[in-house]
Amino acid sequence: MSIAVGFWGVAILAFLLIGRVPVALALMAVSFVGIAFLVGLEPAFGIVMNTPYSFAASWTLSAVPMFLLMGFVAYHSGLTTGLFEAAKVVLRRVPGGLAISAVFACSGFAAASGSSIACAAAMGRIAIPEMVAAGYRPSVAAGSIAAGGTIGALIPPSILMIIYGIIAETSVIQVFLGGVGIGILTAISYVSVILVISWLRPDLIPRHISEQSQSSLSALLAIWPIILLVAMVFGGLFSGFFSATEAGAVGALGAFILGYLTGGLGWKAVQQSLLETVLTTSSLFIIAVGAAMFTRFLGLSGLSSFLNFAVAGADLNYAQLMFIVVLVYLVLGTFMEPFGAMLVTLPVFLPILKAEGISLVWFGVLVVKLLEIGMITPPVGLNVFVIRNVAAQYATTVQIFRGVVPFFFADLVVVFLAVAFPQIVLALAGH
Amino acid sequence: MTALFTFATRSVRILALIGSIGTVAMMFHICIDVVLRDFFRISLDTTPEVVARYYMVVVAFLPLAWVEMRHGMVSVELLEWALGPRGRQLSNILVALFSALAYGVLAWATARSALRHFDVGTFVEFTNYRMPVWHSFFLPPLGFIFAASVCLMKALEFALHPDSGQAPEPLA
After folding, report:
1. Max Cα distance, chain B (Å)
2. A61 touches chain B (CB under 8 A)
3. What is the tally of structural domains in chain B?
4. A127 touches B at CB < 8 Å
């Protein structure tokens, strides 16, 4: 009986989500009604009374606003703008150098910001006009930046990974280290795609070598503030000098100071950074509160245990289980925003994976990678929409989706490698 | 009606501003703690509790109404394309009313919790003293009440002006 309520809850949740009800409120409504149905109205009120405060009042979770602030300040004060120029100068002799530079610049941007969308928007504005002017097919130019933007959520600090670490009760720092591995692998795969296209189809990505007046040294010197910021934050974090929260706070203050010293931090940039930080934090936390309630509901309904037994009874091997997980996330990613998709599914998947003895650090990295693929797949590919907004004169949404296709296949190869050889992720995480 | 909307917009912006101030205060508080601990061997043992119970609660709940006002809540836009203008208007109204109801329930439940904590004077105990934290339990209901009010206003706006879209207002 109670398992049936659990299934009904999941079905009603899907109905509400399709009906455009905000993810957070849909999760809360289903959990409240479901718990009231299962154990009574007063216990359901008890959960609604206590969960919002007890979830948000968390020291570990405070890493989220701090890293968000660091990223927004670094971006709005212009600390990240020199990354593309520097990569371009260093890679000027490589075929497809502009697109490869954009991918490397995305990786550098990712180390200062935890957001895939911010990464795509920032690089799209700078790189696409130059690439098109240099003879790149606009769809491929825009596609490479949309895909490159996904590295933003893979290389730490990653907001998705912090929230995953808290929900899964696993080490955020280890998930971060795993993220470095998969982020680098993703960047290598994108660079390989660009090189292959440049070699096979020079009409899409020209092979010619660009002339640069700036020297490599001066271009690299221009990005010293961002290198210093990243070295300070991650040096302190990975050496154990700071906790994740402290690293975020020191990074945010460092970004303010460096932004001020370099002259990029005006009042407008401060205002914009702070408002974007509170907007993003508040909208993420309320979903996480909903997910915490939904986890309680699934637990009370017995659905989590039922699915555990079902998976154990079905005697699925590792490959079959992973195939299901990958498929679920790829499908959800096509129409759901990453945070919503992650927080709706973790209450179902985590107990199963724990029971199967799968590393939750590795799974966290894989989930974030899978959700980021959803950022470039139709119909709801947020990075593609962002690129369309910042480079509307160059390519239509459909053209950008077409340009993303080779990078999507590269992503599938990365996912295959991460599933087949978990050590790629776990080696850096020290597992 | 316009005066009411203006008042609500200003109030919501003030709450977001308090959230922003909370974020900056949190950053400085944590940095001061790091410097004192690592360079002067002085430990501020209250930092994690102050961060968690005050700054975090401020940042999480007070800007909610502003998020709603900017249409910033995460939702699935799977069937957006299939709805005509009338269908979208009806959908917007229903979603706004549903959201107002959900925030209303949250506000009522968390307000009950806050009153209980007020009655018992909830505090956190340290070695030498007690830090009262009951005040911070009033922040979630405050955020939810304003969010519910904004959703009701949005429902009214969608009903009166079918063309009112979902475009967010400028950030600053």
Report:
1. 65
2. yes
3. 1
4. no
